[in-house]
């Protein structure tokens, strides 16, 4: 039995690769594969197969959506050559995706992905299976299912996947769902005005005008590009920054009072909070769609910047009794927005060391790739999620940043 652990939620190309890997393995073995598969939106994804071939590797970070390049914990490892093999015993291009003990009519998936099919986004459905995984799996639906409603496709695929979720992980999925539900039904926001975008109150006028004009020239008029693919610009109103910081403090105090253990943005953080967990999801979705996508369409089209369709929004906090620094890593995003909210601090500079493909994440940097940036409250840094970076120690004071990891679901070819 081979266990493949993909830590961090599967998304984008990773989700597609994981699904492809399952199918490659299925092709390469003569006996049916018993697979166990589960995914949490911010947890780990486990693919468990009784095969002797592995095409996915493990990250050593339990729930991080980032990949540490320090200390030997390396994610997104090179893949083995794709396995080849015969078509399924269940007929050309299909195989039985469920266990025979289910005692109900078999749901089927097709072996080869339908490359020209554009999968739907399942993000807003709040399912207990990763929406990215569903989008990837949709490319393997039998043709009669492709035209079904999104609800029907989701429940068909969920039906297949749910049977394989080990009880422990099903429990974790459930816990995470309950966490959000508990917050949503009991937490009283401090600043209701943060929960709906008010452009004039949120953004500085020059940023708003540039987005409204919506041309590369208007964007470049407010942005600097101090290193290739890294953009810095003034973005948020000081009052908005302060309201967001106090909202997070209010949430944490409430969580403390109600003995709710706050789930951190990822395992690289001991502090901070996921904004999507306490009701800011709709606001952040709009922030991405109306204010970041116009920029990413122009500057990050080659990594899916034109079709961003999901996000992970969170706050990081540094200083005494908080996180100190952030080790060298790449983000689990296509495009990352990082805005300093305040307050007074010294240190905490971001350092960038160039982009790498998955196979060369740990290779040396070149001098021309070195770029260091000192955070300024209200100012944003926009970069490729795969641009290697870290944050130096905040040596005095208290630094709070807003992070929006913008993502794109896998697209049909
Ligand atoms: O602290 C910072 O500014 C960087 C944070 C970061 O890179 C991350 O959370 O992914
Ligand atoms: Fe990062």
Automatic annotation (TrEMBL):
PROSITE patterns given in the database record: FE2OG_OXY
Q: What are this entry's molecular-function GO terms?
A: dioxygenase activity; iron ion binding; L-ascorbic acid binding; oxidoreductase activity, acting on paired donors, with incorporation or reduction of molecular oxygen
Matching InterPro entries, A to Z?
Oxoglu/Fe-dep_dioxygenase_dom, Pro_4_hyd_alph
What keywords would UniProt list here?
Dioxygenase, Iron, Metal-binding, Oxidoreductase, Vitamin C
Keyword Iron belongs to the record:
yes
Q: Which domain of life is it from?
A: Eukaryota
**Needed cofactors:** L-ascorbate
Q: Where is the composition biased (Polar residues)?
A: 83-101
Q: In its UniProt entry, what is this protein called?
A: Fe2OG dioxygenase domain-containing protein
Region described as Disordered: spans on this chain: 60-104
Domain (Fe2OG dioxygenase) spans 309-408
Species of origin reads Pisum sativum (Garden pea)
């Amino acid at each position: 039995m081979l266990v493949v652990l993909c830590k961090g939620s599967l998304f984008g190309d990773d989700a597609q690769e994981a699904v492809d890997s399952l199918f490659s393995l299925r092709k390469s073995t003569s006996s049916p594969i018993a697979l166990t598969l589960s995914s949490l939106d911010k947890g780990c994804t486990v693919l468990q197969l009784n095969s002797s071939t592995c095409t996915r590797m493990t990250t050593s970070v339990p729930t991080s959506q980032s990949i540490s390049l320090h200390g030997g914990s390396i994610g997104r490892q090179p893949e083995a050559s794709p396995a080849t093999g015969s078509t399924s015993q269940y007929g050309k291009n299909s195989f039985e995706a469920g266990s025979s003990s289910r005692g109900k009519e078999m749901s089927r998936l097709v072996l080869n992905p339908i490359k020209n099919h554009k999968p739907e986004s399942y993000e807003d459905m709040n399912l207990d299976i990763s929406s990215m995984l569903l989008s990837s799996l949709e490319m393997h639906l039998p043709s009669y299912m492709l035209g079904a409603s999104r609800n029907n496709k989701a429940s068909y695929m969920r039906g297949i996947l749910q049977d394989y979720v080990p009880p422990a992980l099903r429990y974790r999925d459930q816990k995470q769902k309950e966490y959000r539900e508990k917050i949503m039904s009991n937490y009283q926001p401090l600043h209701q005005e943060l929960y709906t975008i008010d452009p004039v109150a949120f953004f500085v006028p020059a940023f708003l005008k540039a987005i409204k004009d919506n041309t590369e020239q208007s964007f470049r008029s407010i942005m600097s590009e101090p290193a290739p693919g890294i953009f810095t610009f003034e973005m948020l109103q000081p009052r908005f920054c302060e309201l967001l910081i106090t909202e997070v403090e209010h949430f944490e105090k409430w969580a403390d009072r109600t003995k709710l253990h706050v789930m951190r943005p990822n395992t690289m953080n001991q502090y901070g909070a996921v904004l999507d967990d306490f009701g800011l999801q709709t606001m952040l979705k709009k922030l991405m769609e109306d204010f970041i996508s116009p920029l990413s369409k122009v500057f990050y089209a080659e990594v899916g910047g034109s079709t961003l369709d999901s996000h992970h929004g969170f706050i990081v906090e540094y200083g005494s009794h908080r996180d100190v620094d952030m080790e060298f890593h790449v983000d689990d995003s296509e495009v990352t927005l990082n805005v300093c909210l305040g307050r007074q601090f010294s240190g905490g500079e971001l350092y960038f060391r160039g982009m790498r493909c998955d196979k060369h994440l740990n290779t040396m940097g070149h001098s021309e790739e070195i770029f260091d940036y000192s955070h300024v409250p209200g100012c944003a840094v926009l970069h490729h999620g795969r641009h290697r970076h870290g944050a130096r120690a905040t040596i005095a004071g208290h630094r709070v940043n807003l992070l929006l990891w913008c993502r794109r679901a896998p697209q049909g070819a």
